Amino acid sequence: MNSLFKALNDETRRQIIDLLKERDMNAGEIADEFNISKPSISHHLDILKRADLIIGEKKGQFIVYSLNTTIFEDLLNWILTLKK
């Protein structure tokens, strides 16, 4: 759970999640939306993957990233258990 909150604690990573809500994207498409280096985007994607917030799937020569909605459902369920 700590890696999940660490991943969500960064504005760039939250923006990446917002982009992936709209559609699946490869790293180059994600990087085009930001004014930071591609290695920095790769670093953010790695943190999001380690937190299981996104999934990367190899399609041809690219890795296409999508949201792991299961982890968001788990997080929401956990948050709802706090309301007792």
Characterization of the model:
- GO terms for molecular function: DNA binding; DNA-binding transcription factor activity.
- Residues 1-84 form the HTH arsR-type domain.
- It comes from Bizionia arctica.
- This is Transcriptional regulator.
- The chain has helices at residues 2-8, 11-22, 27-31, 38-50, 69-81; strands at 25-26, 54-59, 62-67.
- With 84 residues, the chain is α+β, with helices and mostly antiparallel strands.
- It has one domain (2-81): Arc Repressor Mutant, subunit A, CATH 1.10.10.10.
- The protein has a three-stranded antiparallel β-sheet with strand order 1-3-2.
- A hairpin with a 2-residue loop joins β2 and β3.
- The longest helix has 13 residues, at 38-50.
Quick overview:
This is Transcriptional regulator. The chain has 84 residues and is α+β, with helices and mostly antiparallel strands.
Let me know the largest β-sheet: 3 strands, antiparallel
Terminal CA distance: 20 Å
Oligomer: single chain
Coarse shape: globular
Helix/strand order: HHEHHEEH
- Specify the CATH class: Mainly Alpha
- Annotation field: number of helices: 5
Rg, nearest Å: 13 Å
Q: Please state how the strands of the largest beta sheet are arranged side by side.
A: 1-3-2
Mean pLDDT: 93
Q: Determine the fraction of residues in helical runs and give it as a percent range.
A: 55-70%
User: How many strand segments?
Assistant: 3
Total discrete domains: 1
Strand content: 15-25%
Structural class per helix/strand content?
alpha+beta
- The CATH topology corresponds to Arc Repressor Mutant, subunit A
Give the uncertain stretches in residue-range form.
Answer: none
Domain HTH arsR-type: 1-84
Pfam families: HTH_5 (PF01022)
Protein name: Transcriptional regulator
Keywords: DNA-binding, Transcription, Transcription regulation
